[in-house]
Amino acid sequence: xxxxxxxxxxxxxxxxxxxxxxxxxxxxxxxxxxxxxxxxxxxxxxxxxxxxxxxxxxxxxxxxxxxxxxxxxxxxxxxxxxxxxxxxxxxxxxxxxxxxxxxxxxxxxxxxxxxxxxxxxxxxxxxxxxxxxxxxxxxxxxxxxxxxxxxxxxxxxxxxxxxxxxxxxxxxxxxxxxxxxxxxxxxxxxxxxxxxxxxxxxxxxxxxxxxxxxxxxxxxxxxxxxxxxxxxxxxxxxxxxxxxxxxxxxxxxxxxxxxxxxxxxxxxxxxxxxxxxxxxxxxxxxxxxxxxxxxxxxxxxxxxxxxxxxxxxxxxxxxxxxxxxxxxxxxxxxxxxxxxxxxxxxxxxxxxxxxxxxxxxxxxxxxxxxxxxxxxxxxxxxxxxxxxxxxxxxxxxxxxxxxxxxxxxxxxxxxxxxxxxxxxxxxxxxxxxxxxxxxxxxxxxxxxxxxxxxxxxxxxxxxxxxxxxxxxxxxxxxxxxxxxxxxxxxxxxxxxxx
Length: 498
Description:
The structure is a single chain. This protein is α/β, with parallel strands linked by helices and 498 residues long. It is 46% helix and 10% strand. The chain contains 20 helices and 14 strands. It has helices at 2-16, 37-48, 79-91, 102-114, 137-145, 194-204, 220-230, 256-262, 289-297, 312-318, 333-346, 349-362, 369-379, 388-397, 405-411, 416-428, 435-449, 453-465, 473-480, 482-496, and strands at 22-23, 54-55, 95-98, 151-154, 161-166, 170-175, 183-186, 191-192, 209-213, 238-242, 245-246, 271-272, 278-279, 329-330. Helix 12 (349-362) packs across helix 13 and helix 16 packs across helix 18.
């Protein structure tokens, strides 16, 4: 959900300002590569109605050139670009080669922890480690020539305040004394880390705004300093860091475990991990994409009005970063259901029928489309999901298999069964079985006989529906038809007794 919200806010901002919404796949961390994740991202955006202007997923989906002027847009396909920029930083003194092995760094971490501290590869220790700041140029060249593995690290300046601007949080100041020398490029796989690839590609692709999650805020000082080191500050994009999505309790970041524990999805579409673990998705759980998008948009942004329901066009028209909150947004599963119910009620009977018919066909039920639309119109106001329609309207299509015990005890007693038997004969004699006529007939017969209206009507409802639920009885009779109406009354009289 968090990733989709980030994409949505970028999309709304781009559309609002006549910009370009770009999808770039940042897949340079080979250890975290997940098969199928790229296609999942594209499928999720498509389901949400978030259209890609440029990048992966744009164009004809085949040729890289059709994706846009800066193709390719997968960083793994751009790997030859990044080493040059890493070496430029080394040449300018803003980065250095580091040959420290994983084992030697693990030893340093263990030693620091043993003394109650924490190891950080920074300005306090770097001059004494295995890197080009200590080694001679000849030795560095020899190590690289013989194939020793190395990384390029950024040379973080010591004791400097980095003053940054965030479109949501305002001015942010961080002292470099708290920052380490991040790895920018690795010879082991000849790939950059996120930090270098992101900055280089944003510059080469003329990115104007970077709108991303709050978890990237600690990386902002490094990114500012990288732009400065490259001499690109004049074209540096503007940054906005979105608030976290919080657990329903409001305490802590929302996670997949919260959804598993409390029974709600945290993924837009069902996700099956490479290990076969299945995570529920909003699509498969019956949510409308427009309801999901509407709900997400208001998790961290507000329009400044009481309006809660927005089309995508309205979101584009009203979205602005200055109304995005700095604090985390608490996710409320019941509010997500509420949004879906609003969209459910607003949809036409014809739209919902298109979605409901396949469910009926699976159950072997084939009704006239017009009748199904009428049924849908009678029950949809009480539904949250399309799947609820069957539970709410099953009695239209299938006769009661049992009768509600409480309703039976309350209404099927005394003279009521006899009244229903007599009313059965009245209905059997009618040739006009339209709702308007039947209502007059039923009410007129009850009133003429001086029978208790509520008792007789509820007894008839029990016979037709099997419970005390449903719309007007005359409408039920018309929709199920005369033969079925008489059959159901007969079955009730036989099963429950006269």
